[in-house]
């Protein structure tokens, strides 16, 4: 079943799952990747360049990752006050070159519109918020996801001549476009970036589902129905849905060749199903 799911014969892998208050973060080691060279991801992509961890300012994720040995990419001695609105930002690399975004929230500065997550009262001080796909053609990728997800982005922006963005990305005169899709009423987001300076190059072909780097999953209520609907829309699936462990799963490539998967918990009340994580 795993061979079918990942599209590779004689697959061998180990998996560790970290449970955030609102998402699962899976680390998978495939035996055939053990000798593959690693390098730091480029900020300007292309591909899925990072996921984001948020914390309250007083439990700074920046400090915690730096103390754990993360290589900070952003300039300066601390996270960047990007917009002056109560959130500081930084990019960093883990030991394998995967990029992560770190956001620190000052709830007092954010004011009435900032709702503290309920899990803070349980002592859970770090959570995940988004995945970022960097593309050479943001309109094309946005239209693709609006079609397969059947809803539109909620926000778009063009950014240039902003020193704080230069500091965050460690790129002089950075210029980019960005689109955001809201995935739930709280903070889960898919964000798409197209860098104009430096220019995001086009990735040709499909990334393998077992390749080093990032992929992401969308949990669905009826995976067979979603598989059929998306296949009719032209989504390129690796296989049919496969039952593996506690989830039905299927991998796919989007129009840019990025890897993503659909999954459905066998038990809708599974503690590892996203709706249960957020209770």
Task: Write structural notes for this entry.
The protein is α+β, with helices and mostly antiparallel strands and 279 residues long. The protein contains 7 helices and 16 strands. It has helices at 2-6, 61-67, 107-110, 138-149, 163-169, 223-232, 274-277, and strands at 13-19, 24-30, 47-56, 71-72, 80-81, 87-93, 99-105, 127-134, 155-159, 175-182, 189-197, 216-219, 236-237, 242-244, 247-253, 259-265. The strands form 3 sheets. Strands 3, 4, 5, 6, 7, 8, 9, 10 and 11 form a 9-stranded mixed sheet that branches. Strands 12, 13, 14, 15 and 16 form a 5-stranded mixed sheet that branches. A two-stranded antiparallel ribbon has the order 1-2. The radius of gyration is 19 Å and the shape is globular. The two termini are 32 Å apart.
CATH architecture of the largest domain: Roll
Task: Tell me the number of helical segments per DSSP (H or I, 4 or more residues long).
Answer: 7
Oligomeric state of the chains in view: single chain
CATH homolog superfamily of the largest domain:
2,3-Dihydroxybiphenyl 1,2-Dioxygenase, domain 1
């Amino acid at each position: 079943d795993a061979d079918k799911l990942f599209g590779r014969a004689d697959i061998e892998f180990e998996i560790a799952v970290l449970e955030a208050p609102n998402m699962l973060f899976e680390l998978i080691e495939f035996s055939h990747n053990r000798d593959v060279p690693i390098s730091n991801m480029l900020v300007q992509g292309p591909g899925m360049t990072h996921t984001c961890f948020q914390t309250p300012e007083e439990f700074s994720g920046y400090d915690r990752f730096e103390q754990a040995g993360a290589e900070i990419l952003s300039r300066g001695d601390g996270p960047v006050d990007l917009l002056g609105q109560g959130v500081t930002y930084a990019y960093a690399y883990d030991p394998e070159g995967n990029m992560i975004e770190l956001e620190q929230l000052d709830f007092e500065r954010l004011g009435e519109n900032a709702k503290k997550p309920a899990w803070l009262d349980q002592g859970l001080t770090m959570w995940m918020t988004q995945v970022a796909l960097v593309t050479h053609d943001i309109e094309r990728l946005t239209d693709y996801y609006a079609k397969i997800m059947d809803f539109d982005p909620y926000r778009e922006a063009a950014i240039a001549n902003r020193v704080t963005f230069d500091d965050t990305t460690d790129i002089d005169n950075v210029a980019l476009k960005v689109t955001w899709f809201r995935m739930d009423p709280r903070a889960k987001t898919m964000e798409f970036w197209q860098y104009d300076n430096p220019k995001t190059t086009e990735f040709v072909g499909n990334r393998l589902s077992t390749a080093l780097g990032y992929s992401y999953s969308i949990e669905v209520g009826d995976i067979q129905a979603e598989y059929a609907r998306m296949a009719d829309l032209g989504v390129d699936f690796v296989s049919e849905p496969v039952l593996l462990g506690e989830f039905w799963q299927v991998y796919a490539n989007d129009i840019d060749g990025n890897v993503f998967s659909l999954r459905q918990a066998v038990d809708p009340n599974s503690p590892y199903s996203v709706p249960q994580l957020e209770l």
